[in-house]
Amino acid sequence: xxxxxxxxxxxxKRFGSVVAVNQLTLHIQPGEFMVLVGPSGCGxxxxxxxxxxxEDPTEGKIYIGERCVNEVPPRDRDIAMVFxxxxxxxxxxxxxxxxxxxxxxxxxxxxWQLTHWSEAxxxxxxxxxxxxxxxxxxxxxxxxxxxxxxxxxxQRQRVALARAIVRQPKVFLMDxxxxxxxxKLRDQTRAELKKLQERLGVTTIYVTHDQKEAxxxxxRIAVMKDGVLQQVGTPEEVYFRPxxxxxxxxxxxxxxxxxxxxxxxxxxxxxxQIGSATLPVLECHAQKLRTRVGQRVLVGIRPQDxxxxxxxxxDAILSEPVPAxxxxxxxxxxxxxVHLLVDGATLIAQLSARIKVxxxxxxxxxxxxxxxxxxDPATGETLEA
Length: 385
Ligand SMILES: Nc1ncnc2c1ncn2[C@@H]1O[C@H](COP(=O)(O)OP(=O)(O)OP(=O)(O)O)[C@@H](O)[C@H]1O
Ligand SMILES: [Mg+2]
What we know:
Blueprint: E1 6-15, E2 18-28, E3 33-37, H1 44-52, E4 59-64, E5 67-68, E6 79-83, H2 94-106, H3 117-137, H4 153-165, E7 171-175, H5 183-200, E8 203-208, H6 211-217, E9 220-225, E10 228-233, H7 235-240, H8 245-250, E11 257-266, E12 269-274, E13 277-280, H9 283-289, E14 296-301, E15 306-308, E16 322-332, E17 335-342, E18 345-352, E19 362-367, E20 373-375
Parallel strand pairs: 3-8, 3-9, 6-7, 7-8
Antiparallel strand pairs: 1-2, 1-4, 4-5, 9-10, 11-12, 11-14, 12-13, 14-20, 15-19, 16-17, 16-19, 17-18
Helix pairs in contact: 2-3, 2-4
Residues 44-45, 175 line the site of magnesium ion (MG).
């Protein structure tokens, strides 16, 4: 089946005085896996519900393919949804749970007319083949005779997915579908889901508040905050070129450090004064700072791009060492998140656990100058666009 594009065009949804989704314009390619991510309450579910037809937009238009669906009832939109609290029919066996939607659609008007037995039988065989094919795909063939209460959480999740997939919809909507699973099963199901989506090639919009999940799943990620789309891009784009300080600190763990800096001129070139340290800047950044000498900017640096003198890779372009005092060490197995005090500011550096640091130690920090991010302190927008 041909995959369809999905477009939100300046879509707004208000609930009384709450603006749940604010002027959302988002284009999703046919067959694309798009992840909507953002903190709780940012409007993700509302966006999906409008696409599914369960809420009407207050303003704007939604398209599936070339068709504006604003006036199309939910059942005619050809969308399948998997929600966090997917409800399986408890009294039906797995087989019937999966077949149910197909039967409703295919047997409509046939089953009830007892004159069409042969046709009903052909349809039943078609449904059976389809249910078994999807069950095999999701590795639940052995469970078709069981009731939902006889399944593990992960198995139930896969039955819910099977029920959505079996209908061969134009668009899949998934709203935190893995959140009921334990961490290991979630990782495993997530990987399966990604493979499955690639194989089926059905346009998919997947909602999560978990930025890690977004990064691993999405071909592209749409980051939302307070109903407003902040940035759309590949995982690499939103990670390496965040559009603003919100995206910079939302994507990536621990979050990007943001430091206030004064732009000054040093040996004829712009430099950054952070506390008592003066950082030279590379040419790529210097261009952005020339017009801002004498002003303040926000400097972003990821915890992964800060080193102590003993840890830097040989090709890193490093700042002069800046003394810092270790405040807290958070172990994470192979690495430590080290909270540091520098000139009264706090920074988090992610260091290999093989480097022994103790609380109270003084260490010499070096920043990877190539990976500095610069933001306007008033708007939070990147200066690098
Ligand atoms: N039916 C409703 N009536 C009133 N306000 C609503 C309604 N549905 C959602 N909202 C509000 O709209 C905003 C967006 O809600 P939405 O459920 O879309 O957020 P979300 O991003 O899915 O959050 P979460 O990650 O917690 O699921 C919230 O402020 C919420 O309180
Ligand atoms: Mg939600």
